[in-house]
Amino acid sequence: xxxxxxxxxxxxxxxxxxxxxxxxxxxxxxxxxxxxxxxxxxxxxxxxxxxxxxxxxxxxxxxxxxxxxxxxxxxxxxxxxxxxxxxxxxxxxxxxxxxxxxxxxxxxxxxxxxxxxxxxxxxxxxxxxxxxxxxxxxxxxxxxxxxxxxxxxxxxxxxxxxxxxxxxxxxxxxxxxxxxxxxxxxxxxxxxxxxxxxxxxxxxxxxxxxxxxxxxxxxxxxxxxxxxxxxxxxxxxxxxxxxxxxxxxxxxxxxxxxxxxxxxxxxxxxxxxxxxxxxxxxxxxxxxxxxxxxxxxxxxxxxxxxxxxxxxxxxxxxxxxxxxxxxxxxxxxxxxxxxxxxxxxxxxxxxxxxxxxxxxxxxxxxxxxxxxxxxxxxxxxxxxxxxxxxxxxxxxxxxxxxxxxxxxxxxxxxxxxxxxxxxxxxxxxxxxxxxxxxxxxxxxxxxxxxxxxxxxxxxxxxxx
Length: 464
Prior knowledge:
Blueprint: H1 11-19, E1 41-46, E2 54-58, E3 69-75, H2 82-95, E4 98-102, H3 111-128, E5 131-141, H4 143-155, E6 160-164, E7 180-188, H5 192-204, E8 209-217, H6 223-239, H7 247-267, H8 270-284, H9 291-301, H10 304-330, H11 336-352, H12 356-382, H13 386-399, H14 404-416, H15 420-432, H16 438-443, H17 454-462
Parallel strand pairs: 3-4, 3-5, 5-6, 6-7, 7-8
Antiparallel strand pairs: 1-2, 2-4
Helix pairs in contact: 1-3, 1-4, 2-6, 7-8, 8-9, 10-12, 11-12, 11-13, 12-13, 12-14, 13-14, 14-15, 15-17
């Protein structure tokens, strides 16, 4: 839809060819799955048609084969399907959703691998669970958000897409389907402006869409924000006559937004008032009266102060997108000391700035440098390019010193260099920073020589 840097550019073609033809087919189950316990997260279930692919699932307390249930299919950028399912299981329970998380779709896979995983997961859903096929939703964060969007727009059979912290990769392909699209981004998310730009393009293309902005960074959103996404799916389903109208849900949503708008008006926070009001109209249009909201928005849009602030936001968006391009082009070009200076300047802005918008701008750029460090170091390690890997990992650590992945990748590089003590020290630091993927650590090819190492066993025991 527009240009962004992404490793999954060509995924679209294969996804269209290998998956779309399965949209409305009827299939006999390939086997019988022992049903997971309802009201409890069940991790690492192997797909019957392809046991190499696994997922985590939550079935709501009232789940049974007597009726059909809506589904939320989640994609995490690191392939940790358990994380979003655990994080949002209470929402799945509240709104009566089956929630499935992919344990295999992740950043760095080629288009063939990603498309194959998606295909098998859909087969599993349709074969083994009591699914309302008119209410299948994809949700993802970062690279997982891009996958969620691509599945919805190019595979078909998806009612809505919820993309957190990411838009869509570059493509000259025409979208094949038009699911409802909800973007979510924190003000400190380096992909904030990418999603804002996409929001405008979806508006021009006539999509049913909305964009939730909140005070946060590049991460899976907190539960109160994700609850709005569940409400969005419910309201969209009502508009499309997929479920009966729920007046109480509409009233509760309206009351909550009216309260927030009253506070923002009192604080004279015009930009946030504009964003919330615009979103409320999108949520309610077609299912509740919105004329008064539109009139209020028109008055707000005529305010010269708001016009100036929105113009400044657009200028900042263009500046940051260009700066991201510059940083990408200069990776491995600039002296390593140059990166230290750039990162230190952003850290000082966060510490010293008295304006929230300046602080968020600095956080967005640090987050982008973290991603750039992760992507380039991962690629360099995979290519056994030690010099580039060391360089990129240093940038990564400076930009995001509390990210456990920095030290996990450092451990992999150390093992490739035969430095066992350094690898163990890096793993210890990764665990101290919150690394908790025991299975990944045990299966990591570079760590296989450590499986009989007592220190390595001790590190595994530290992971809860």
